[in-house]
Amino acid sequence: SHGDRGATVADVVLAGAAYTEKVGSYANTEGRAQQTGAALTPPGMARPDWKILRALAE
């Protein structure tokens, strides 16, 4: 979905969701924990990184 020419010749493509498509938490510059929601739905078969790693581990 990002125009990567290498994906067309790859044996495996791991379609990871972009940061705007994920739910997450982080520490801001004041050291406070903050949560963020997904602003967009991942396109196609893109998934959060943890789901890709879980599928690879199975």
From TrEMBL:
<dbReference type="GO" id="GO:0016020">
    <property type="term" value="C:membrane"/>
</dbReference>
<dbReference type="InterPro" id="IPR006656">
    <property type="entry name" value="Mopterin_OxRdtase"/>
</dbReference>
<dbReference type="Pfam" id="PF00384">
    <property type="entry name" value="Molybdopterin"/>
</dbReference>
<protein>
    <recommendedName>
        <fullName>Molybdopterin oxidoreductase domain-containing protein</fullName>
    </recommendedName>
</protein>
<dbReference type="InterPro" id="IPR050123">
    <property type="entry name" value="Prok_molybdopt-oxidoreductase"/>
</dbReference>
<feature type="domain" description="Molybdopterin oxidoreductase">
    <location>
        <begin position="2"/>
        <end position="58"/>
    </location>
</feature>
<dbReference type="GO" id="GO:0016491">
    <property type="term" value="F:oxidoreductase activity"/>
</dbReference>
